[in-house]
Amino acid sequence: MGSLFREVKGCIHIHSEYSPDAWAPVEHIAAAAAEAGLDFVLLTDHDTLGALEAGKEGWYGPVLVAAGMEVTPPVNHYLAFGLREVVPKTGGPQAVIDAVRARGGFGFLAHPFSPGTPLVPGSRAPWTDWSVRGFCGLEVWTFMDDFMDQVQTLADAARYFQEPDAAIGGPFPQTLETWDRLSRAGRVVGVGGLDAHAFRLAEQVGRLGLGHAVPPGYEAAVIFPYRQMFQTIRTRVLVDAGAWPSTDPGPGSARAAIDALYAGLRAGRCTFGYFPLGDFAGLAWEPVAEGEPCGVVGAEASYRPGLVLRARVPAPCHVRVLRDGNPVYEGRISAGAEWPAPGPGAYRLECHVPHEGRLRPWAFTNHVYLR
Ligand SMILES: [Zn+2]
Ligand SMILES: [Zn+2]
């Protein structure tokens, strides 16, 4: 079954010059993505489809760029894809979700437990309305959120901007709990995101009222350049192999590849993780019946006794299998393992790796749904 799919890797939740608070041309972002070895980037500019309207979707060498938008009211930000026209940010979160669906798109609740930081006024933008329906999923792990959670004072900033990896702790427990709870009722897709803006240091120092404290030589410095961000949280998606050109993509193939990427995301055929702890290429999680896979990650299958859940990991790690949010198996595996499914439920796999004396969250699969 896996042979029908090809696994592609990329980064989600990227702001370009079409966002009022970012500056980079799409060409700059695509070049950074190519240097980082990505297959795709998903742009999500604030309240605009400017990149799409300017004809910036498509292949940039080996990198596919697709343009969604981040619908950005003060809270309840929504990452929306598959749109041809802008969705207004007014009317409340359910109206935004409905408007995206009515236009044929789909979306993810952005940084749903955004902690923000007092250092950046207005940076706290969580999801506040959990009665909503009709969204595709959640941004389960957001690089900037994870980082900012640790950067609450200027002393924190001084430390963690020198050593950003030390601030990265994994998806917030509330986000994982919410994801698992929502998944009991139906498919809720989890993705990793960046919220990349590549803020210019000088502009931020001015904006935050820190005085003209940019040291000589740093006037043009950028906080988290795209190339650096693209080496952090990545999402890997299983796409229809026939729709993704293996070499030298022609301009005509971009539409089919974007559609295939969106189809993979909507089906939950994805994993996400933190690249500095190791490449998680090939991480697999699938239901197996009578020795044969009966689906891939994201699949819904009917539960029957004897059904097995199979994991394949690209490197030895400590895994945890969760059923409806409750751990049912845990232990170290080196390459692969199988566990009998104890009953119906939404099952996902977490991989953790030892790093400097502690186990760190590394990679997460979407759920397999046994109904
Ligand atoms: Zn946002
Ligand atoms: Zn954003």
Walk me through the structure.
The structure is a single chain. This protein has about 375 residues and is α+β, with helices and mostly antiparallel strands. It has 2 domains: about 1-275, Metal-dependent hydrolases (TIM Barrel), CATH 3.20.20.140; about 285-370, Immunoglobulin-like, CATH 2.60.40. About 20% of the residues lie in helices and about 30% in strands. It is built from 9 helices and 20 strands. It has helices spanning about 25-35, 50-55, 95-100, 145-150, 155-160, 175-185, 200-205, 225-230, 255-265; strands at about 5-15, 40-45, 60, 65-70, 80, 105-110, 135-140, 190-195, 235-240, 270-275, 285-290, 290-295, 300, 310, 315-325, 325-335, 335-340, 345-355, 360-365, 370. The protein starts with a strand and ends with a strand. The mean pLDDT is about 95. The structure holds zinc ion (2 copies). One zinc ion binds near residues 13, 15, 44, 70 and 195.
What are the SSEs and their pairings?
Elements: E1 5-14, H1 26-35, E2 40-46, H2 50-53, E3 58-60, E4 63-71, E5 78-81, H3 93-102, E6 106-109, E7 137-142, H4 143-150, H5 154-162, H6 173-183, E8 189-193, H7 201-207, H8 226-229, E9 233-240, H9 254-266, E10 270-274, E11 284-289, E12 292-293, E13 300-301, E14 308-312, E15 317-323, E16 326-333, E17 336-340, E18 345-355, E19 358-365, E20 368-370
Parallel strand pairs: 1-2, 2-4, 6-7, 7-8, 13-20
Antiparallel strand pairs: 1-9, 3-4, 4-5, 5-6, 9-10, 10-19, 11-12, 11-14, 14-17, 15-16, 15-18, 18-19, 18-20
The structure holds zinc ion (2 copies).
